[in-house]
Amino acid sequence: MKEEVAKQLQRCLYLHISYYLFNILFLYRHSIDIEVKGLEKTVRAKRGLKFPVVLTVKEVDMSGVVISAETLFKLQ
């Protein structure tokens, strides 16, 4: 269990670090017009696909979750 948590934490940290480094690289390339040498072949980490989850009316009823109209409008 600890190994699995550590692995997921490491992956999450890698994605965040990659995200920030590529944002800095974008700033250098497109705003300051400076090409950073040695990073021509870098590959950006890609996030996994997320598919929308659609529940049936029966599944929603079984979940016991009640969403008020006020909460629903806040989500939009």
Task: Furnish the topology, listing elements before pairings.
Layout: H1 2-31, H2 57-63, H3 69-75
Descriptive account of the structure:
There is one protein chain. With 76 residues, this protein is an all-alpha fold. It has one domain. The chain is 58% helix and 0% strand. It has 3 helices and no strands. The chain has helices spanning 2-31, 57-63, 69-75. The longest helix is centred in the first third of the chain and has 30 residues, at 2-31. The radius of gyration is 21 Å and the shape is elongated. The model has no long low-confidence stretch (mean pLDDT 76). Keywords: Membrane, Transmembrane, Transmembrane helix. The chain crosses the membrane at residues 12-28. This is Integrase.
Helix percent reads: 55-70%
First-residue to last-residue Cα separation: 37 Å
Ranges where pLDDT stays below 50 over 5 or more residues in a row are none
How many domains, in number, for the residues?
A: 1
Keywords: Membrane, Transmembrane, Transmembrane helix
Transmembrane segments: 12-28
Protein name: Integrase
In short:
The chain crosses the membrane at residues 12-28. With 76 residues, the protein is an all-alpha fold.
Features:
0% strand, single chain, 58% helix, 3 helices, 76 residues
